[in-house]
């Protein structure tokens, strides 16, 4: 059946230099490589001719990581849910993950930077921290294995190859992708796994709506002071300027995500690694007013910053006299990995639809969210799973997989869960972005009530970790 599909495609082609495919995926990020692996691992879909096009130098960097992983954990790390991990197992890529570079944790400790109200979320294997590159490299290895098993119809990866234009074949309305190497591909189905600025979404004329959070997410790989053992725990402090999170990595390392407005990001971005480290320890413990003062020092007299923080933290630490009080805060950061600092603009976006005639959108091409709940990549994995099931059903029913009617079950399945998740994360961001007393009182009361209702917390944990889905 699939060969017949392609024969039809070739007959209608506009010229001999245009390749034809059943599925072209733009983007070799976590979503694109997951989709490629899932299609080729599917007994129903593996006969389709499938090409992945990626603008970056993908294969070389992922092979290098797989063959000789670097000493330090990369700065791009994500928290994946048990549901995402199960999906990687289902498509066969989890076997290729470098497990010694991942950390599974059972507990997230959140605390309000204004009122101090705290909430703990516990569940066995709540989430797992893993480098984006570890996910991508495992997926590439799985694709290579599947290609070896299916040498007549392997997945083609065109990396270091940018899609520069997408037009519509006038004969049958299939997308034709123009590549920067001069070649073109025409495809029955174009899947945009091409991130926030998705060229596929633009080609399909699908509107994406949302807003910027006016926050930068500052990331780094950090080492806790080795003076005390703690079970791997995620720490999250809600400050009016944004969320500060330390997420656990193996051997007492952790991954930082620190959301701050652009003006603060510019100030902390100029600090040395040592000054930045002190500022992190201050942000984990001191009051928002003290932090505002410290940002001023960091801007105007950075040479005095470390002494000022040492003095303030010294006073604060003296107030923590019992083990229980100390355990209400993360361990202090000792140092950060050189060159591990980076920053990303944070935004919410959601496409009006994830499907159009001959086009489907997946992952960040369809939606982006504030990383405070660690859901962006996880939502993308759920998209991939749903799209693959939709394509399988279409194939079994003999439908043309690129038609909008065949793709609509995917959109129907993913629209509401993604919309709900984007809304929840947005509300959390907004509720915590203020130090307005009545709101602080209300949110702290809410948190204290929630913290005393285990069944409600279990429900939230279930939703966030997608357990049971
Ligand atoms: C600070 C931060 C922390 C985060 N933490 C978490 C977390 O804990 N948990 C979680 O689930 N998510 C998290 N996320 C979100 C997560 O990183 C993203 O949702 C995920 O990486 C998106 O993957 P993707 O494959 O959809 O898109 P991308 O990774 O953006 O991949 C898109 C790919 O398309 C390629 N491309 C684009 N245009 C073209 C073109 N014209 N031609 C060829 N190729 C093209 C790009 O080169 C790129 O490789 C976080 C995000 C940030 C910023």
Automatic annotation (TrEMBL):
Protein keywords: FAD, Flavoprotein, Membrane, Mitochondrion, Mitochondrion inner membrane, Monooxygenase, Oxidoreductase, Ubiquinone biosynthesis
Catalytic activity: a 2-methoxy-6-(all-trans-polyprenyl)phenol + 2 reduced [2Fe-2S]-[ferredoxin] + O2 + 2 H(+) = a 2-methoxy-6-(all-trans-polyprenyl)benzene-1,4-diol + 2 oxidized [2Fe-2S]-[ferredoxin] + H2O; a 4-hydroxy-3-(all-trans-polyprenyl)benzoate + 2 reduced [2Fe-2S]-[ferredoxin] + O2 + 2 H(+) = a 3,4-dihydroxy-5-(all-trans-polyprenyl)benzoate + 2 oxidized [2Fe-2S]-[ferredoxin] + H2O
E.C. number(s) listed in UniProt: 1.14.15.45, 1.14.15.46
Predominant subcellular localization, coarse grouping: mitochondrion
Record pathway: Cofactor biosynthesis; ubiquinone biosynthesis
Annotated FAD-binding domain residues: 21-213, 342-392
Pfam families: FAD_binding_3
Presence of keyword Nucleotide-binding: no
One CC-aspect GO term: extrinsic component of mitochondrial inner membrane
GO MF annotations in UniProt: 2-methoxy-6-polyprenolphenol 4-hydroxylase activity; 4-hydroxy-3-all-trans-polyprenylbenzoate oxygenase activity; FAD binding; oxidoreductase activity, acting on paired donors, with incorporation or reduction of molecular oxygen, reduced flavin or flavoprotein as one donor, and incorporation of one atom of oxygen
InterPro entries registered for this protein in UniProt: FAD-bd, FAD/NAD-bd_sf, UbiH/COQ6, UbiH/COQ6_monooxygenase, UbQ_mOase_COQ6
Cofactor(s) the record lists: FAD
Subcellular location: Mitochondrion inner membrane
SUPFAM superfamilies reported for this sequence: FAD/NAD(P)-binding domain (SSF51905)
Function: FAD-dependent monooxygenase required for two non-consecutive steps during ubiquinone biosynthesis. Required for the C5-ring hydroxylation during ubiquinone biosynthesis by catalyzing the hydroxylation of 4-hydroxy-3-(all-trans-polyprenyl)benzoic acid to 3,4-dihydroxy-5-(all-trans-polyprenyl)benzoic acid. Also acts downstream of coq4, for the C1-hydroxylation during ubiquinone biosynthesis by catalyzing the hydroxylation of 2-methoxy-6-(all-trans-polyprenyl)phenol to 2-methoxy-6-(all-trans-polyprenyl)benzene-1,4-diol.
Family to which this protein belongs: Belongs to the UbiH/COQ6 family.
Protein name: Ubiquinone biosynthesis monooxygenase COQ6, mitochondrial
Lineage, uppermost ranks: Eukaryota, Fungi, Dikarya, Ascomycota, Saccharomycotina
Annotated gene: COQ6
